[in-house]
């Protein structure tokens, strides 16, 4: 099989590549603003519990399915049971949708990195800078193309020479940059006009200490849903990526140990990202800056960097360079999943499928870019939010398909073929699987119920039914 010709050289290569997929814009952009919005330390505790339970179950399932079947997501479920072949096609739709807009966000990052290199901190911090950029006709497409070309090049080089090689380089650099900026954020201080001094350590306390003031059952469920959606986005589960990467893992790799390392790496980067961003935003923008939501990266942080004086330019360059690395490793994993699946489906070479998938990504990404100008419209989504084309694609993939796929997978593994099918793969070389019993209980009884509730709430069906 062609798949067998492509494999990671060993455990370290697999862990770094999988961590590269997991560590992306979701960790550095999405995690800090959700944490700031949802009570700081309270969100942290809930997220950590979910990582150790649901994250561990979903990650183990995807990787084990990939290695055991030696197939990509499109055909892996058919190899388990012919009646469940449709689940592979549903899974394939997720990266196909994500690929339409991930390069667009990557282009935004490249634009900001370029701005800090060329013009410094003043321009990106101006009101309306981000809006004027994304609503322009040509500029977003140009920067999107640059990011997409880099992604396609890495995927074209293949698994060991491309994905693994660049993950080995980019992930350590990414980690060093995050740690460096996080330490710098804690040393910051700023005196306001009324003489009040805000420090990075004060921002740290806001980040780490749970805020339960006014907490209700409904509010707790909302935080739980935010944390669960972040889990999907962060660990790259239920979208075929980890199944694809699992199919490249050699049989002698200790899966249980590798999965633990991926969990630690991904959660550690998310934690450090919050440590890097939240104290800095608090120092220069106060508690108002903490509630800026998804705009935290492109609207609030440039103001933070501008407030740092001469050092702000270098911090801005380091931050967006780091964010670009994270986005690139994640986008590579999304494109690799599409290429690998299509290679298996159409029996074409990697070169041909890279060209085809690259063309598809380019055309759809251009349409998403034009969604902020030529194709602009306001669309009310089932979850109550209002968005454009990018928001629609993100909603279908993350709020609709991913919890639905996780629900169906938990039924297949938990009740149709049994959790032992997965645990046997994890322990096939005699390795210990300390969370084996926990895996079986969660997969059979807990994951299906929680995923059903999540699916209902994220699609608006919860309010209709209840």
Automatic annotation (TrEMBL):
Keyword annotations: Membrane, Transmembrane, Transmembrane helix, Transport
Major subcellular location class: membrane
The keyword Nucleus appears for this protein: no
Topological category with respect to the lipid bilayer: Multi-pass membrane protein
Pfam families, sorted: SNF
Transmembrane segments: 40-65, 86-109, 129-157, 169-190, 227-248, 269-290, 310-332, 353-375, 395-417, 438-462
GO CC annotations, alphabetized: membrane
PROSITE patterns with a match to the protein in the record: NA_NEUROTRAN_SYMP_3
Transmembrane helix in keyword set: yes
Subcellular location: Membrane
Protein name according to UniProt: Sodium-dependent transporter
Organism: Anthropogastromicrobium aceti
